[in-house]
Amino acid sequence: MSAGMALWALTLGLLLLTALGHLCLLHLRRQRRPGEPPLDKGHVPWLGHALAFRKNMFKFLKGMREKHGDIFTVQFGGQYFTFVMDPLSYGPILKDTKRRLDFVSYARQLVFKVFGYRSLDGDHHMIHAASTKYLMGPSLQELNKVMLDSLSLVILGPAGWGPGHSGWHEEGLFNFCYKVLFTAGYLALFGFTRDKEQDVLQAQALFSEFCKFDVLFPRFVYSLLGPREWREIGRLQRLFHKMVSVRENRDKEGVSSWLSFMLQYLREQEVPEDMQDKFNFMMLWASQGNTGPSSFWALAFLLKHPEAMQAVRKEATGLLGEARLKDRQPFQVDVSVLHHTPVLDSVMEESLRLGASPTLLRLVQEDCALKMASGQEYLVRRGDIVALFPYLSVHMDPDIHPDPTAFQYDRFLNPDGSRKVDFYKAGRKIHHYSMPWGAGVSICPGRFFALSEMKLFLLLMVTHFDLELLDPATPVPPVDPNRWGFGTTQPTHDLHFRYRLRPPE
Question: b/e for 71-92, b at 16 or more Cβ within 10 A?
């Protein structure tokens, strides 16, 4: 080895030792102060528990709760997260009238990293205003009609029902639900051209690329991609920025009022067109990333529980009669029936309880105290993140939901058939008994449209189709552990089924 190379090796070694020493110093410096929650930094400097958390979030948090109780602080990659596991203590955190716990700042960082979009100060309020105006009430009724037409187009084709639809079709249930809901939802929100057949093909091509992005998404958020995967993420981001760009959608008809309202706001704020393209990408993911997987869980549970399928079909028949397609016609459903489906509503709520696992995050803006339901207070530090994981702390709590891992289609129904809203923990009525959409300022603003999409899809499937699992003994697949904490979970593998249209009139 030359003297120059030896000197370089020595210098590099010293730099690495210095960096490692700095990480160890940071690791050792943080100590639990009086009044703070239990602190568990892990054994690896800086990384802390990041790898165990990423490997299986549900298993990790369950173990931490058993070790430390209902509140604890853990380290992931130099950042400290305080998890609150007692749902009776959620109220003050979710309300936070003093604004000491901020959702918007953290969300801004995430959307810039994932979608390349730089949020404006008023974006959060603008998105909620658009969703309140166009994804609820009378406007939602109109959008549901558009969604029904989109589902007809995607499932039946531009010509409507034909002889080619009469036989059995075999497919993976997850892929089928995700593809149909994504394609129809994209067309309903982002608009059509005059060539409907080409629209469907273009939307399906978009779905194919979306699936590639979706597979990488969890590790992308945690910055755990390999070099090739980082390049692939960059390619996909550029592709989506182009495919859902303002320019590409300019000549489309029927772009939803929801999307038009938001883009008009961005134009008024003089946001550059390329940044509007990135906003569209963000809205595509927000609107289409969870409805397909959620519908999969609901339909999978119905197929595995004949009594639930029978109850839903009985309710649907009472509302719609013996629905049958007319030759070469789209689906005909009065969308107002979506307001009168308590059994289907309970099925959806139960499916979401079992399938949705959002993480609610709040950035601590100033040193403050969290008051637990027990009356005890814990101090949290500025710059830390307060986190809630309701799947474990609420959805799987046997006190709130007896036999919590079981699917019970009528869990959210009273004996008289009305919606059940009274749930208890430790003898106390609990407000947040189901949180698939998040809560507080971070609650999903498009939840009413998302639920309508899924209910419409399920109504069409149970009333117009014969549905069978290829192997009735096959269990519902377990959750892919990589998907914990990212909205609706996904299965480790698909569930194969077959379907056929019932004969037309």
Answer: bbbbbbeeebbbbbbbbbbbbb
How far apart CA 154 and CA 175 sit, in angstroms, is: 14
DSSP per residue over 148-189, as a string? HHHHHHHHH-TT-S-GGGSS-EEEEHHHHHHHHHHHHHHHHH
Q: Which residue has the tokens 């986190």?
A: 387
State mean pLDDT over 12-29: 45
State residue 102 phi and psi, 5-degree precision: -110, 130
Instruction: Give the span between the Cα atoms of 409 and 420, in whole angstroms.
Output: 12
pLDDT tens for residues 217-241?
A: 999 988 888 999 999 999 999 999 9
493: Cβ–Cβ under 8 A, 6 or more apart, which residues? Answer: 477
Concatenating the DSSP letter of every residue in 227-268 gives HHHHHHHHHHHHHHHHHT-HHHHTT-B---HHHHHHHHHHHH
How many CB atoms are closer than 10 A to CB 458?
22
The full set of domains in the chain, from first to last, is 33-118+360-388 (3.30.43.20), 123-358+389-501 (1.10.630.10)
What is the CA 132 to chain-centroid distance, rounded? 19
The Cα 19–Cα 16 span in angstroms is 5
Average pLDDT value over all residues in the chain: 91
| Cα(386)–Cα(432) distance, integer angstroms | 17
Collect all residues with Cβ–Cβ distance below 8 Å to 73 and sequence separation of at least 6: 32, 36, 37, 38, 39, 40, 80, 81, 82, 83, 380, 384
In 3D space, the residue among 415, 416, 433 whose CA is nearest the CA of residue 425 turns out to be 433
Rounded distance, CA 449 to CA 189, Å? 11
Please check the confidence at residue 50 and state whether its pLDDT lies above 60.
yes
Pairing, β 496-501 against β 169-172: antiparallel
* Residue 444 annotated in ligand binding: yes
Q: Where are the alpha helices (DSSP H) in 423-496?
A: 447-464
d(CA 57, CA 358): 11
* 290 carries a ligand binding annotation: yes
Nearest Cα residue to 298 out of 313, 288, 308: 308
Instruction: Determine how many CB atoms are found less than 10 A away from the CB of residue 295.
Output: 28
Q: How many CB atoms lie within 10 A of CB 131?
A: 20
Q: What is the DSSP string of 100-126?
A: -EESHHHHHHHHHHHH-----TTHHHH
